[in-house]
Every structure is written in C-alpha cells, then in structure tokens.
Design goal:
Helix content is 25%, strand content 24%. It is of the alpha+beta class. Helix 5 (284-293) packs antiparallel against helix 7. The strands form 8 sheets. A 5-stranded mixed β-sheet has the order 19-18-20-13-21. The chain has 3 domains: 3-56 and 186-265 and 485-512, D-Maltodextrin-Binding Protein, domain 2 (3-Layer(aba) Sandwich); 62-166, Dipeptide-binding Protein, Domain 1 (Dipeptide-binding Protein, domain 1, Alpha-Beta Complex); 269-483, Dipeptide-binding Protein, domain 3. The chain starts with a helix and ends with a strand. The longest helix is centred in the last third of the chain and has 18 residues, at 457-474.
C-alpha cells in the first residue's frame, strides 16, 4: 500500500470509528464530498453537497421515479382541478418527524407559506410563485390553489416539507440553527454535524424501510484522496461511492473487480463570470476579447476530460439549447484588434486606456475540482493579449460570501446545477436573486418576462432559444462546458438508481452486501 493511501485510510478510519458503533461496518455507507454542506435547511441548500444530503434527511410530497413518472412520497394520491387552477393532495398517514412528532397537513401548509413569506429570502423562491394559497383539509388533506393554470402541476411539488413545530413563524432565516440540526421525515436522521463529516443513522420508523444502517459523508477536497479511498472500497476505511470521478481517473476503474462506473446525468454547466460593476468588464469589446483568447477545447481536454463546449446558458440536452448559435472559436488576432480598437494599448505587458488597466482579480473557490489548473491555463492564455489576471483562492464558505453576497471580485469561474431544466431567470434578469454579476439588459429582461408570463410551452421554448442567442452575443458570462460525468460505486452496492441532480432520491432502496 502506498504511503499516501495509508494516510488517507488512517484519517478516514479515525472518523469512521465513531459512526454508529453498534452497526456492522458493512452497513455504514461512506462517501466523500469536495465541499462541506453549507446548510441542511432545504430552502438554503444551494450547493450540491447540501442538496444531496437534504435528499437523505427530508421528503417531498412527490418525487420522480426511475421511469420518469411522478410517484407519491408524503402524498399518496392527488387530484388536479379540471381548470388546472389547483391540486388536492391526500397525505400519508402514520409518518413522524425524526423527533417523534406526527406529520400532518399543517406542515405542508406551513412550508408553502414560509416559502412565500417575503422575509424568507432564498434563491429558489421563484419555484413557489405559481402558488396562491394552501389550506389544510383535515389532518391528512391539503388543497393548493394557483394564480394561473398550470400543466402537470404535481411535477412542481418536488420540494422538501419542513416541520411547523420546529419554527416560531413563517419567516425563516438562513442562520437558523435548524440548518445544522435538521428534523426531517426522511430515511436518515442527523447524528453529528462537524467540520470534517456529517453522520447519519437510519430512521427505523421510515415508511420506505431503508436497507442501509448509517451514512457518513466526509469532507475530502483532494480528488486524488477520493480516488484512493474508492480503490479501497471493500475495506473498513474505504468509501463506497465517489459522486464525480474526473475523466482522467475513469480508466483506473474500467476493468475493476471492486468498482463499477455509473453515468451520472446532470443538468449543469461551467461558466466564467464577469463583474459588470468593474468599468472595463462592462465594456463588451473587453469581454469579447477575453472570450476569443480562451481556448476552451484545450482546457477541457487537459484538465476535465470529455464534455461539450457551449455557446449559451443551457446544456446541449436541454430543449432550450439553440444549435444555430455556434460556440466562439479562439482567435488571438481578433482579440488583440478588438482591444486596440477600443483604445486599450500595450504598456508594460498589460493593456491600458487612461487609468484603466486590464488587470483583474480572479476569485476562485479552493474546492472547485481542477480549479487551480484551469486558472493557470486561463492566465497563460489571457497574457497573450495583454490581460493580466491574478488568482485569489478562498475556502468554500468565504467564496460564497465574497462572490455571491459582497460581489468582491472581477472574474470568477464556477458551475451552475439545475433540477430538470435550466431556469436562468434568477441569473440574468436585472432583478434576479442570483444576478451576482450586476448584469442589466432591457432586451434580456423583456425576453425573460415574456417567457415567464406565457402559458404556451412551445412559445416558452422559443423565448429561451432567443435568450440563448442574445446572451451568447452580449456575454454576461463566458459559457464554458457541460461535462460527461461518471460516479464510481462499490460493487457491494445493490439496488442502485442515481437520480439526476438529486442523486440520493432512491437511496432507501440501495443495499450494502457483505
């Protein structure tokens, strides 16, 4: 055994030893994550580590099963009004919260009212905008009315239900202690939440009968360490899954006796964002020149592996992707000419116009996979056109605060992940809650407003394709890639189905064989 692997296993085993000691080791499912969960309160679970963990702890009214159909979870049946202006749910009886409190219709009504409370501010709030009111009909019935007709409304009730008794009112804060000590109705409940790990044990009263006794998530930002731990997946200190294997590591497991590769279909794409409050970056020729200087195919092949180079804010599998819009090809000469024409002259290796120097702070999340290598590649490419970028690497929590809250950056790179289709209104509308780049374009606002108002899905798709073309032209972001993603799973696992985006939706059906 190599020394690096031994250090990984010892460190992991030190934590694993305190998890559910009464359970046989082969009933503890272990997996690493690149980042720590920022919140286990479902409204504020905005990073994928948190989303996956929330899936284990909480239930929705309905979920999408492996056939792509809507199936009941906390709801056993539902009926849509003939005019599609409402839906009635019949709830599952006998369900309890992790603290033993009975689940009822009041919890569903509370969740919907909290989500629509103007003082409860979270990024996915727009998903609840179609709801007018919710009322309990006895202990196990809920009637939800809409402010407009909704086609297949049951597919909009995938959000997690919160316990009314755990909160003092419908205004819920991001800093609520519930975020670290959640109470759900899901298959697993939280035993321990620390900086290094989150430990869960099976909810023995769960209606879905979980087949695995305990779960441990370990914060392991080192991708090489994750791979080493997966190679030891059959041992007491190994892991049974790695959510995202880097393409360069896939050959290690293609003929493995212990690990199987599973495609993990996601709706996610990488981007490089410009802060439009920075005067030079508000200048379209500068953004255009930067995009022409970056060779995305070269960076993708060198650092991430296989995927699609994008021309807009949708993946190629999306119904909204506009294939008539071609991705930009790198063109250093045109990039230099754009900057010359815009008045930026070379001075000491950096282009300058008056007091404006094309020298930017590029803020990076330390825990972004391959982030450092990607930045160095971008830095070298931009230097060729006289644009200087200096990296500022910050930890995950500080990154979210600095970039999304304080907007203290010039450039950044990251990934957006979406549930089923890309809802980009919050990203690019001038009033969007995730428009952290300060972008404002009246034409874009008009397209997004019209799309949100239409009841015709065909017309909505047309608006989205028009939006794709407009954003590709205006470059609020430089759209990068969507990746081919594989998970690595121990062959000891059975009954595995990986839910797109959510990953662990069907985890209560997974088994760990000795």
């Amino acid at each position: 055994m190599n020394h690096r692997l031994l250090r990984c296993l010892v460190a992991f085993g030190a934590i694993a030893g305190v998890v559910a000691p009464a359970l046989a080791d082969d009933q503890v499912f272990r997996y690493p994550e690149d980042t720590r969960p920022t919140s286990l309160l479902p409204f504020f679970a905005e990073d994928m580590t948190s989303v996956r963990m929330v899936e284990l702890i909480f239930d929705p009214l309905v979920f999408i099963n492996k056939r792509g159909d809507v199936e009941g979870a906390l709801a056993t049946s539902w009926k849509v009004d003939a005019d599609q202006m409402g839906i009635s749910f019949v709830l599952r009886e006998g369900v309890t919260w992790h603290d033993g409190t009975p689940f009822s219709a009041d919890d569903v009504v509370f969740t919907l009212r909290a989500a629509r409370d103007p003082k409860t501010v979270f990024n996915a709030k727009a998903k609840f905008s179609f709801i007018k009111e919710a009322v309990a009909q006895g202990q196990y019935g809920v009637k939800v009315t809409f402010n407009r007709p909704v086609n297949e409304p049951e597919r909009r009730f995938l959000f997690k239900i919160l316990p009314k008794h755990a909160f003092s009112g419908t205004t819920i804060s991001r800093k609520d202690k519930f975020a670290r000590s959640p109470i759900g109705t899901g298959a697993f409940k939280v035993d321990k939440f620390s900086l290094r790990s989150v430990e869960l044990t099976a909810n023995t009263s769960y209606w879905g009968n979980p087949k695995i006794g305990a779960v441990m998530m370990q914060h392991t930002p080192d991708k090489a360490a994750q791979v080493n731990l997966l190679q030891y997946s059959g041992g007491k200190a190994g892991v049974q899954a790695v959510i995202f294997l880097q393409p360069k590591n896939i050959p290690l497991f293609e003929n493995s006796d212990t690990v199987v590769l599973e495609p993990y279909h996601t709706v996610s794409w990488w981007y490089m964002a410009y802060n439009h409050k920075e005067k030079s970056l508000a200048d379209l020729p500068v953004r255009e020149a930067i995009s022409l200087a970056i060779n995305r195919e070269e960076l993708l092949a060198a650092h991430l592996g296989r995927g699609d180079t994008l021309s807009g804010p949708f993946t190629e599998s999306s119904p909204f992707y506009n294939f008539q819009v071609e991705p930009r090809e790198p063109d250093l000469e045109r990039a230099r000419q754009l900057l010359e024409d815009a008045g930026y002259k070379m001075k000491g290796g950096v282009r300058t116009k008056g007091r404006q120097r094309l020298k930017f702070k590029f803020v990076m999340d330390k825990e972004l996979a391959s982030g450092q290598e990607l930045f160095l590649g971008i830095q070298a490419q931009l230097k060729k056109i006289g644009v200087q970028v200096d990296a500022e690497y910050v930890d995950h929590a500080r990154y979210r605060e600095q970039v999304f809250t304080k907007k203290s950056f010039d450039l950044t790179m990251n990934v957006w992940s979406f549930e089923e289709v890309e809802d980009v209104y919050p990203l690019f509308h001038s009033t969007g809650v995730m428009n952290f780049i300060g972008y404002s374009n009246k034409d874009v606002d008009g397209i997004l407003d019209a799309a949100q108002a239409t009841k015709d899905y065909k017309k909505y798709k047309e608006y989205m394709k028009e939006l794709h073309a407009k954003l590709s032209e205006d470059l609020p972001y430089f759209f990068l890639w969507s990746l081919d993603v594989y998970s690595g799973l121990s062959k000891k696992l059975a009954g595995v189905f990986i839910q797109p985006y959510y990953y662990f939706t069907s985890f209560h059906e997974w088994e760990l064989r000795p």
